[in-house]
Amino acid sequence: MVDETVPIGLFLVTSGSKGDRLLFRYPFIFDVNRENGVKGSKKSPYAILSDHKDDLRISQEEGLDPKECNLSGFDDKLLSTLLKPGPCGQKLELKIENVRFIGHPTRLPHDPYRELSTITMFNVVFALRADASYSVVSCYHDLSHRLAVAIRHEESRCNYLTSQVKLMQSAHDEIASLPEDNEESPFQLILSRSELAVQLKMAFVDLKTNGMVRLKINGWIELSFCLPNTLEEERLLIEPACIQACLKNLRPYHGLLLLTGATELLSSLPEDSSPALIRLISVTSPLKNFQQLAADADIILTHVFQLVSHLLYWGKATIIYPICESNFYVISPHAPTEIHSPLVPKFNERFPNCSLLKILSKFSLPISLSGLHNPINSPYQQAQQVQMVIWMLQHRLLIQLHTYVYLIPSERSPACSNIHSFDLSYSDQSDESHSKASSEDEDLSLREQDSIRQANLKPTERDILRDSSSSSNSKEDLKNFLRFCRYFRGQHHLEEIMYCENIRRSHLHSLLDKFRKILITCQFEDAAVCALNNRI
């Protein structure tokens, strides 16, 4: 599977009084003449550039990993012209055949008290596959911009870029002065001399290996960056847009599930991490909701959401509903159920003498945690069963189903038919009926009347509710039903209703059961959780 997030090349291009110049590129083993089989051969500066379309492209050797791709046909002269810094502050995006170049041209500040530099602008450019998604391209532009800002800051502080460029230019001049049959690359010499070149190489390698970059430019400016999280085992691509959609639907009753151990996560944090983030991670439990986490960590709820978004962005956590016995789970339609799945040995390592596929088979149909419990199991076995569920949630093998309620009174129901025939045949009694209905509305409190308005009930629905209430339910039942009626449009699951209205599950189920003739229920995944399960 080709990973569109993997970069193909990285380039540093400058512009100034000495013209446009490609100072550094990585990887740089591109001067191989494949047609003649001669390594390091140089073309005449007077040679005409071939206009064949296949000359400029991403190439891949047979038998190599899809990530191991090279750029062919892009020599230094051509790249310095194509990637020269354009209008300052505008994104550079150039597509040639199956290659897309992304950069952010930046102008160096003019300081009359510092040494005059021959460089006026520079550009850190990344080469990607042309079919990379918009979100991936946007992320690379953001990284190019961050690198430019850090380098520009250090140039203002201590002429950092000017000194690094001098080292690079001297390396190019040394290699150019050698005989033509010399095979040494100037970029290899630059890596042995330039700190900036080493850091750019580190950024490229880190992007290919784990999609994360952590640098300290010139030992002074810290830079952290993360690509959209691609989880190949679960075939997930978690993009920034997915995280934003999740945050939009995030509520205080949701919970946080760390994808690694808290100790391991804390040890990987930078030294200057927020104390609030450290406290949040320390108290995080899949049994707590955000409101409880805020209280335990002594952080306001708004700040908790901000910290959670940070953990989601870096792929360190996911969103769940806190684990309890009433939660219903079912196997994910994307779960790998083959015998030789790579998750099987991981599960066996975590839970010896237990079969992952056997455990997954219990979730072929939606089942609650309480339904999984065997009365003869020991407390240890029950606790282990919960830990298995947590592990499967971390690896997206299970999804939680929530119950959504719809108010759908059938117009063909006997009660509804009787009402319509009654209205058509007996106008006097119909008026009396409407008068009685108005009288009942007057008996309702202001809160119930407001509930009716908020529920936006149709006339037919209101008549059906009155008929249902008069036939088998009390007036108090009708008032309670009207209070919750605005939630019965399929937009709110039971857990959200319980949280918003401070009602117990048993009381809510009792109310729904009394009006079951005009209600239907469906089970879906929570919107906040579903946003993080975007499949590749």
Structure description:
Helix content is 44%, strand content 19%. The radius of gyration is 32 Å and the shape is elongated. The longest helix is centred in the N-terminal third of the chain and has 25 residues. The chain starts with 8 loop residues before the first strand and ends in a 6-residue tail after the last helix. It is α+β, with helices and mostly antiparallel strands and 536 residues long.
- The first-to-last residue Cα distance is 10 Å
Assign the structural class, choosing from mainly alpha, mainly beta, alpha/beta, alpha+beta, or little secondary structure: alpha+beta
Number of helices: 22
Q: Extract low-pLDDT stretches.
A: 30-54, 61-67, 412-442
Please give the number of β-strands.
21
Helix content: 40-55%
The main sheet comes to: 6 strands, antiparallel
Mean pLDDT: 80
* Strand residue content: 15-25%
Q: Compute the CA-based radius of gyration.
A: 32 Å
Name the overall outline. Answer: elongated
